[in-house]
Amino acid sequence: MIRLKLIKVYGLALALLPAIIPATATALPDDRNKPINITSNTAEIDDNTGSSVYRGKVKVVQGSINLEGDQITIFSNADGVTRLVAIGVPAHFQQLPETGEKMTHAYGNTIEYFIVDEKMKLKKQARLEQESNVFTGERIDYDIKRRLVNAYGGSPNSSTTQTPRVNMIIQPAKSNDDQSSSSTNE
User: Domains of the chain, with CATH numbers?
Assistant: First the structure.
C-alpha cells in the first residue's frame, strides 16, 4: 500500500507523493560539519556583502552534498553560509539522504539552496529524483528535512517548457510478498 502526501500543483491539486521515504529523515548528519570545497575557473569574493561568485564549471562539495553549475553564488553572514544559488543548463544538486539510501538528485536552470531552512527551489525545467520517483515541472519547491515536494507547471504561454503541466513517475511500494518471493528465488 502506498501512503500519500499532498503536493500543491499550479492549477491542480494532486495527492501523489508516496511516503515510502520517512518524513523525519534528513541529510547525513555529518554533512554540515564537513568543510565546503569549491572549484571553478574564476572567483569573485566580496567581504562587504558576504557574497562570492564562482564561474566556469563550478563544483561545490560538502560531505555527500554536491552542487554543480556554470555559476554559483554563495551568500554568508557571521554565522556562516546561508544560501547558494546555482545557474546552469541545467545546474545539478545531489545529496545522500541517509546511509544506505540512494542519492537524491535535483536539476534546474536555477537552483536556490537555503542551508539553514534545508529548503530548495528549482526553477526552469525543474526535475527532482528521489529513489525511483521523478517529479518534473517549471518550478519545484523541496523541503529537504520534511521531504515535501511542491511542483508547479508553467503558464500555457510559457516558452521555456514544452508543457505547462507537472509530470510525476511514482513507483509502487514493494510488498512483503514481493520481497519474500525474490528471496526464495535467489
Answer: 4-175 (2.60.450.10)
pLDDT given at position 93: 96
**Single pTM value for the model:** 0.73
- Predicted confidence band at 97 (pLDDT cuts at 50, 70, 90)? confident
Q: Is the dihedral of CA 129, 135, 75, 70 positive or negative?
A: positive
- Kindly state the cell numbers that stand for 161: 517548457
Q: For 152, phi and psi rounded to 5 degrees?
A: -135, 135
Encoded amino acid at 165, one letter:
R
Alpha helices in the chain (DSSP H): 176-184
Distances in Å between the Cα of 184 and the Cα atoms of 49, 174, 180 are 62, 16, 6
CA dist 6 and 64 (Å) reads 28
Please give the pLDDT value at position 158.
53
Question: In which element (H, E) is residue 169 found?
Answer: strand 167-169
Question: Which comes out higher in pLDDT, residue 85 or 176?
Answer: 85
Assigned C-alpha cell, 56: 566556469
Distance CA 34, CA 42 (A): 23
Exposed, middle or buried: residue 185 (CB in 10 Å: 0-12, 13-18, 19+)?
A: exposed
